[in-house]
Prior knowledge:
Helix content is 11%, strand content 49%. By secondary structure, it is mainly beta. The protein has 4 domains: 53-138; 147-237, YbbR-like domain (RNA Polymerase Alpha Subunit, Chain A, domain 2), CATH 2.170.120; 244-332, YbbR-like domain (RNA Polymerase Alpha Subunit, Chain A, domain 2, Beta Complex); 334-423, RNA Polymerase Alpha Subunit, Chain A, domain 2 (Beta Complex).
Amino acid sequence: MARVPAPARPMLPRRRLDLRRVAIADLPLKLTAVLIAMIFWAVSALSAPPTEVVRDYGGRVAVERPADVPAGYVLEGQLGDVSVRLRGTEAALANVVASDLHATLDLPAADVHRADPQDVPVHVEVATVGVKVDSKSPAAVTVRIEPITSRDVAVQARFANDPPKSTVAGDPAITPAQVRVSGAASQVARIAALYATVRFGDAVTDLVSSVQPTAVDASGATIDGLTVEPAIVQLTVPVLPTATTRTVPVVPALRGSVAAGYWITRVTTDPSVVTVRGEAAALTGIDQVATAPIDVTGLGADKTFQVELQLPAEGTSLIKAAQATVTVSVAPLTGSRAFPLVAVQATGLGSGFVAEFDPPAIGLVVAGPLPALSGITAGQVVATVDATGKGPGNYPVDVVVRTPAGTTAQSVQPTRVTLTIRAR
């Protein structure tokens, strides 16, 4: 029987691994190293800058009207609003509220000497800690920087409604009658009227009211941004019963004759009608109101007269107008004047020649205003023919007539003559 060899024995004895001993070996040193690593990790995590993001602000920011406009100037134009993009951490951006954002104009960058529109940069500030403005849109606003001017304007009464039934509004009294209006030059230039507007109540009593005048342009639109001094006027309007009033036309009382050769083409009055107040018996026979006499003697051009209105009867009075503006328009009469013998003359005749005409004179009728016709002298009506470049011989030529300014040749007989040129 074969002999089984014995297993070979390792040359070095196998050592058993003691994990517990490994774990606890130098345990204080290992724990110290782990603690130091954790401290380094915490410090690096805390010292790293937080991550910033860029985000649009949810609403728009109104551009504030600046308070630092240079003295003597005013800012005109709609400032509008801007959209803003913010930069910061998520936590900081979450704290932004509307009151933290302020948009203003960078007025130092504007040119106050330019009256035309100009683009002024917009500056946006944010009060929230840790948040900055990344961008805004639009970056500029179009405005005008205009000098402040002022002018005196008369205040006019305007009624928002009719007076109570069976009454009529009398002549309003305004104190002061004129105020000073200031503002941007372009706005002040637009003023067409300054109204103190009042509203009648139901009671039949005189209207007394303190009113703030309002400026309007030629289209009736209100002009904003103006300063009125004084800001308040006192307006008093009599409220009168209509049972004792009557409205009749104004008739101008013309006296005298206009200049010779002229005639009156038109007469206008302002107002054209007036309201008369009085007892019913006195008003019955009144159908017109005459002006004071207007003397038109020798009038040769249009003229405007300011005249008093005459009370039509005793015990009557005029509710509003006490005067009238009367414009008398005149024009010259037209006619004609005959000049039967106007000698024909030659122009451009060469030296050494003489000219004869057949016929030697023409007949002429001049038309125009009578004053101009009456002042024409014989030498002011001229008939000529052109002999330029012509030598001896006979020539049929047209007659050229010249009359004073403002008149015309209405008839010329004959219009052509025979020109005979001979040597001297």
